[in-house]
Fold this protein.
Amino acid sequence: MLSVNSLVKVYPGPVAALQGVTLDVPKGMFGLLGPNGAGKTTFMRILSGVLEPTSGSVTLDGKDVLADPHTLRASLGYLPQDFGFFPHLTGQRMLEYLLKLKGIDGPSGVSRLAAELLERVNLAHAAQRKVKDYSGGMRQRLGIAQAIAGNPRLIIVDEPTAGLDPEERLRFYRILSELAQDRTVILSTHIVEDVAVLCPRFAVIRQGKVVALTSPRTARESLVGTIYEGDVEGAMLDEMRRTHRVTQAILVEGRNRVRVHAPSGNVPAGFEPVTGTLEDAYLLLMQGDAVAVGSAA
Amino acid sequence: MSFTRLWVVASDEFRLTLKRPMIWVLIAFLLFLTYGLSAGWVQIAISSGDAAVGGKKAFLTSEFALTQVFAVFTWSGFIFFVAAAAGLSITRDDEARVHEVLQSTPLKASEYAWGKFLGVFAAFLVLLAGMAGMLILSLAVLPNAEMIETRGPFVLGHYLKPALTFGVPSLLFMCATAFAVGTGTRKPILVFALPVALLLFCTLFLWSWSPAWLSDSANRALMFADPAGVRWLRETWLNVDRGVAFYNAQPVGYDATLIWGRVLWVGLSLAAVGLSVRRFARLARASHPVSADLVRQALSAPAVVPMAHVPATQRLPGSTTVAAPWWRTALLIAGAEARELRSQPGLYLFVPLVLLQVIATSMLALGAFDTPLLRTPGQLAVSQMELLAAYVTLLLVFYAVESLERERSTRLNAIHDTLPLGTGTLLAGKALALGVVIGVIVLTCLAASAVLVMIEGTVRFTLGPYLLLWVLLLVPTFFAVIAFVFAAYGVARGRYGAYGISLGAIGIGVWAGLTDRENWVSDWSLTSAIRWSDISVLEWDRPALILNRLFWLSLGVLFWRVAVWLYPRVDRDPVRWLQGGLLKRRWRALRPALPFIAVPLLLGGLTWREVSRGPDGARAEKMQKDYWRKNLATWWNARTPWMKDADLQVRLEPAERLWDVSGTFLLVNHRDTTLQRIPLTVGPWRNLRFTVDGDSIQPDTASRLFVFTLKRPLAPGDSVRLGFAYTGQDVGASRAGGGASEFIVPSGAVMAGWAPQYFPVVGYVPSIGSDEDNAFEPRDYPEDFWQAVTPALFGSEQPMTVRTKLDVPEAFRANGVGELVHEEVKGGRRITEFRSDVPVMAYNVVAGKWAVRKGKGTALYYHPAHTYNIDEMIDAMDNARQWYGTWFGAFPWKELRISEFPNLAGYAQGFPTNITFSEGIGFLTKSEPKTNLAFMVTAHEIAHQWWGNMLQPGQGPGSNILSEGMAHFSTAMLIEQVKGQRNGLEFRKRIETQYGERRFSDAERKLYRVDGSKQGDQTLTYDKGGWVFLMLADLMGRENAFRGMKEFIDVYRGNPDHAVLQDFTRHMRAYAPDTSSYDAYVRQWFDSVVVAEYKVDSATTRKREDGSWETRALVRNVGTAVMLVDVAATRGERFPDDTTKGKEKPYQQAVARQVFAAGGTGAWVTIVSAFEPEKVVVDPDVRVLQLRRSQAERAIAKR
């Protein structure tokens, strides 16, 4: 169990990136959802031991990881949001190097292990190419390979699917979901679909605060019978926003397809009831309506 | 190319460059330099002139001075700033990732790159103009009142001309090379390393390396190769001093070498920029040339496996996680780091640079009279050690910072910082990789040393000194440097701060060294602390040396601890630190570091204690000051009795650096008044006991001056025997190592009797406790001082008989003054007794573990391994004894000894019969048949047995020329006598060249007034003095001269009125066959300052009807001396070298003798010869001292 208690991080400025975050993260997959600048990366960097918080505590199975980051590092698989590799090494050599530094070995040796990991992330064909020649997605996959290696007790992945194509994203989902069966995996993302697919529980963070702690199912169920969808003329959209709670307004084939949250039955004319999605819930949360989505935060 | 777009980029870069904070630092630096120049504490301009009040001063505003200022300041002042601005201008945009945006605009890559370059260059041109303005302000508009004598008239051209010819091309070169390196490699390390490398290369080699044997063409090539033009200026105009009047008034004449050199560098600079712009433009479009084969290969490559079939499960491969031992992880990191470092081009620039410097330094090792030294492993290891430490330190600063920065610059740190490895392990890996780099450099230098030693082929190459000096002694330095830079990185948490802290620390170290503030505690790199001796390997200050190494090692450990603690792996929160419980938190953080602080504190304290109780320490200094303060008024110039006899028993324990002395001095009152009290100066010895005529006495003491109040006052002519016994021991360490002129170390001892370091001295010694603060001005002697009685220049006032009984361990031999009268070995001790019944002026004791070579009444005591020049030295000793005895009077003792002592000092001292030579003098001189340098230095020192001992010069200006100048004269005569004319001419030319290069024409005084206080006095005393005696002997005829000199020694030997130069010229007049020409010669060469300088302006020849050849030459004497000089028409090589031997034409010469008026008026000379001459040579037999001898000859044109 990873426990986070009253975590505060203030950057010079001052900017309060985290404002007293408290969370208990059990085994399994846990999502951290939030918009850009919400404090997700700050939170993940503190959890991974590379950033010191202003105050608060973090314990893993009862051990204070802030006081002794080395304890955490030995059982951590970490994929940061922004990272790089030694450009002159090949993918295989780079991964081997990191595995050796982590003390990870395979039954047939570290080279074989590295090769198998590269195969899992579909990089076997580029194993002998220098990292500097990798595309962004390939680098991301190499990062994933090092993060999942060696059965870490805690895996922290920050925006892991950025730069991945849909197929690679699917591959990664499978890997993560299997890994999450017997360990804690924290997934930070602003892509709602990632959480919807993978996480039985998730927290939504906004302006440094946890505004919701729930499950996708609960969030969706709380919206049953409250979401309506219809077309709106462009000129009327602003008026609609003033009079109704618009969760989404997207262009579909040139038309404004608008979804509104109307729990009290104030349904715009021409709108039909639809099933609420996690995205609706998330966007409602971003508008400050935690109660609507059944949040525990 | 659009000039509008170019202008936009350039003007933007121009503004940006001038706005950078570092420009304010540069402006402050330039203000500091120009103000310092104006105030006199920055000295860079012409060194000619007279330091004395009222003497002629070189103007700071002359064209020569300002040319040097612009040439050197532009280079050394601007280079770091220019490199940073020009080298990083494109890299910074690269890091800001603006290139792709810029490329999407109509701006072409070439416009962008040229604009960047021109913007930076223009900004520094403005700053150069600013520097010129600052110079005008500080030197002309607001000159420093105290330095007004150094200000000449204001001439704008003096500022503009050098700024344009030296400043602008240098700036362009710096900008261009930095821009090319930065743009080409995008590696900041190279941009920062470039100025360091260039500056070191220029200051340590290109601007200063100018051995006498360097040919003119090679010198020209080096001038051409100097992008700053400083070498040209120094070699063409400044190295041979032309006098203040010349420098103050004349313009700097540019020649083809300079003009084409400047044009070449401007062209190369623009070409470098052009090429780098072209490369940048090519790479910006990513238009790499790809061959058709590669295209085919790429197109035929199998497609990437389609991704549609993602397996249903993604079970990961099995693995185990076991923490590897820290050292294995460190080795792993070291391996990766070493691979990265290997790919750094800086290494391939630095290593050749280090190698070049190391080889150049090894070639420059010089001993006495600038004689080259044999390359021994120990000497090479020490001479290269300082450079190695300096270069590797600089390299480590750059490489250590870049190594720490590597994960950040590649953004791997985001992953790397979370890996389960200790920070100490991580740093250890990086340090190990840096160790590999150091190892490569050290091994390269070692290989170069081995090659140098083997090429010379005289000395056997051994590894021992290198292991001792480069490994054992330098490892703590390198470790401390690495740890310091790591710690600096931790403190600064970034590249630039770490550079700033590290280079700042190095700057402080350099400042401490230059201002003589270094000591055994602070000397982290052992700069100048180590002297190599084959005889005494690191015995001097050994405890301090060991403590120093341990101290820096422990300090390295402390830095390491700080580095591990502060390494920016975790982004610390400043607010957390400022929250409650700050003190408690700090203390908790500090507590584990206490042992790391305590050990260096303890070791530093112990090292400091060693220095404090040593001869330069506070205790000794206080003792000396007390001696000066308490005794000066009473005892300075007090009358003391004559020490007529010294009887000494000396027991030496070299291993303990201890000596026991007992003995007596027989003191005779030779004054005309009764003496009541006798002062005796002693050292800091223990168990002091005294007797007077055998009765114990307790003298009054005043800080080491013991005053004996006699029961029976000493009437004129009476004598008293003063007895003494004491034990002395050398303790502590000198302040900063290096060596000592007298010493007892486990391998030997050198002890002289003329200072109270080892033996008591009768009277007060004014030099003790006297320093810059309390020293008296030198005495100003009137012109006729020599007519009064002049006391002795050194040693006792009157000669004494001496007996020394020396008791040393059996393995040692010991030598004293006089003849060996007894020697026995008993109970593991060797007891020898020396006696000189012939009175001497000074005595000494020297001991060592020697082998002995006996000659004809001579003996050479030498280190058993130093056999290289023994034959030549014993030959010199035998011949010197024979010929000097013939010329100047018989040597009055049976044996003349030379004893070798450890190279803790580099002198030779000619005590009567007992001469001491440092290793580097004679024994390790690189002597060749053409030069016979070992013969030369031996002959010079033996000459002091006559000129210095038998003839003891008196106090007063010019008198030391009787010692040193006559020793050079004697050497020249002996070389000619024994080695023949060719070697004789070589020696004359050698000392003539030294005089030409080292004289300061404005500070030069007539020989009668040379007292060693002015620049250039040394060459006047030795080289000009020797030459003037040589010309005198030619003028008088050698037989007459020798007769006069012999009788001169007889007259003044033991005479209370000691001889000075005026006594000599007055005495010798009686032996001159033509007194009027003698007087004229003395007036010219002793009583005024003259020197000849001949030029052959024209030389033609024609065949006469009788078959002979008539040669006519126009010769000008542009010097000031008027001498009868030979002008020869010559044919063939006089002294063919090995390459032309056998093929040469026979040498022929026909001579005409003529006097040429001074002042440059030419005169025609006609020479008739039986052969067709090839050239005209003024003074072919090197008989007249002249400047620039090479211009005193000319090839003949046929008429």
Remarks:
- The first strand of chain B starts at residue 320 and ends at 321.
- Residues 327-612 of chain B form one domain.
- Residues 377-410 of chain B form the longest helix (34 residues).
- Chain B has a mean pLDDT of 88.
